[in-house]
Amino acid sequence: MTQHKNWLPAWECFIRVAAAASMASAARELGCTRAQVSKQMAELERSFGVRLFDRSTRRISLTPAGEVFQQHALRTLEAIAGTEVALSNLGDAPYGTLRVSATVSFGRRCIAPLLPGLLANHPDLDCELILTDSVVDLVGDNIDLALRMTRLPPEDAVARRILSLRRVICASPAYLERHGEPTDPQALPHHQCFSTVLRDDHIWLLRDAIGREIRIPISSRLNFNNVEAIYDAVLAGHGIAILPTYLCHPELARGELRALLKAYEPTTVFGSELYACYTPSRVRVAKVKVFLDALQGHFSTALPWDRT
Fold first, then answer.
1. Sheet containing 167-171: which strands, arranged edge to edge?
2. Could you tell me the residue ranges of all domains in the chain?
3. Tens digit of pLDDT for each residue in 103-145?
């Protein structure tokens, strides 16, 4: 196979066909004809001397040999992509497009404001901030650096801890006036308590002063999969929630929200640590380094939500 100069396009084509289970779909993605895709797959099978696909009138599927080849081809193409990135960014000055991923709320409030200053200091640099609450594929989505709130950073990536995020149980004075203030965690099931972005199985985990974890079942007639929507509902007096302090610290300071059950520390499925995650091929890339430096510089000082 190494004797063939055109193996790389054929391998990329194979990955598209395997993912779509259709040569026609792969051809549309690649901007070529189905006949060209079919020819490449036939040449690939000839060069290996094995059948990679089982073909029927409706769809195609991988043979056992095709499944083995798919695993190795994916790893090889990812390594090639990482090598290209590393080699194209060996200079000391950052340039090109920096693609950063962050959660919708944290990215919009805490990361987006940093970017204009970064670009002003580096005129050859562009930036794309990808806001999503889903976990991105660093390689497949071509992400240079992802900011992730997680208990365990991914094992296949470099992970640098940026900061710890605090959370508080809070409600509006209007809600507490109507329903009373819970003075003990066991009172929470009798209140409207929002799920943590629908990922906590409607169980709140609270840690007391001596480190014991308490599981509290909660419920609400209104639920959201977005923390900003939960924040808006709490402000409007519709219930109690666990909110990150970066989001709600102004309202806490002004008394528009009230922190509850201060003797208990809420924990979530996301953990409390924010990590910057990137592939090993980005370790020495200048545009990633200057962004990391900007993050560390900004978050190394006392933050407003920690002072509240």
1. 241-244, 167-171, 258-260
2. 7-88, 96-164+272-307, 167-267
3. 999 999 999 999 999 999 999 999 999 999 888 889 888 899 9
Architecture of domain 7-88: Orthogonal Bundle (1.10)
Amino acid residing at 87: L
Start-to-end Cα distance in the chain: 63
Q: Residue 85's pLDDT is what?
A: 66
Phi-psi region of 96 (alpha: psi -120 to 50; beta: other; left: phi over 0): left
Q: What is the mean pLDDT of residues 27-45?
A: 87
Fold match, 96-164+272-307 / 167-267? yes
Contact by Cβ (8 Å): 207, 285: no
Which run of H or of E encompasses 164? strand 158-164
pTM above 0.70, yes or no: no
Please count the other Cβ atoms lying within 10 Å of the Cβ belonging to residue 26.
25
Q: Which two tokens stand for residue 117?
A: 């200053």
What is the CA angle 17-22-24, rounded to 5? Answer: 100
Copy the structure tokens of residue 279. Answer: 């592939």
CATH match for 167-267 among 3.30.530.20, 3.40.190.290, 3.40.50.300, 3.40.50.1000: 3.40.190.290
Q: CA 303: distance to chain centroid? A: 23
- Which residues are paired to 165 by β-bridges? none
Q: Is the pLDDT of residue 255 over 70?
A: yes
Residues sharing a CB contact under 8 Å with residue 52, sequence separation 6 or more, in sequence order: 14, 41, 44, 45, 62, 63, 65, 66, 69
Taking residues 260-273, report their average pLDDT. 90
Residue type, 6: N
Percent of the chain with pLDDT over 70: 93
pLDDT at 7 > cutoff 80: no
Q: Which CATH architecture has domain 96-164+272-307?
A: 3-Layer(aba) Sandwich (3.40)
Q: Could you tell me which residue, 257 or 25, shows the higher pLDDT?
A: 257
